[in-house]
Amino acid sequence: MRRAIDVPLVNQWFKEHCPGGYPVKVRVSYQKLLKCYVLNKLHQRPPKGLKKKYLFRSLRSTKFFQSTELDWVEAGLQVCRQGYNMLNLLIHRKNLDYLHLDYNFNLKPVKTLTTKERKKSRFGNAFHLCREILRLTKLVVDSNVQFRLGNVDAYQLADGLQYTFSHVGQLTGMYRYKYRLMRQIRMCKDLKHLIYYRFNTGPVGKG
């Protein structure tokens, strides 16, 4: 049995006929999601009969992996911390002490840079993509931390997380460094249209 938390609520909605009164952008979202679903179904092959391999067991037998009973929020905080340290090491390896990386993963110069310093302080797409992914991770982890501290209730947490994943394009600049991510960002936006127009009806209006 699947836990109640894992049941996909929205998965069936775009397979239904879109109501006629909805704006064009919402109808387009319905079409896009349905098109993506059909494409995935067409390219899906029946699974081959393979001998079951347990990934965790094979990883556990190597010296690089360990198992832990750590709480998910704790693990998230560790990921953010280690990611921050990793990016800082890369910055200091290039002796760029005039660049400051804050805990929200914003990279800013501490003074007005000369042309030579600007040239030296350029990083590749991989560095910036890691930085933006860690920024998104930190947003999600921070939301859960606020919930654990009792500053927000479960409804606010759910709303915040839904907003975060619906507005990845506004909250982070990931697409600048790997433009193919726009596909997933647009898909999240389509799901947002689907959800908002299903719930924000009647006296509630647009949320």
TrEMBL record:
InterPro entries found in the cross-reference section: PROCN, PRP8
One of the protein's GO biological processes: spliceosomal tri-snRNP complex assembly
Gene Ontology molecular function: any one: U2 snRNA binding
Span of domain PROCN: 1-207
Annotated GO CC locations: catalytic step 2 spliceosome; U5 snRNP
Cross-referenced PANTHER family: PRE-MRNA SPLICING FACTOR PRP8, PRE-MRNA-PROCESSING-SPLICING FACTOR 8
Full protein name: PROCN domain-containing protein
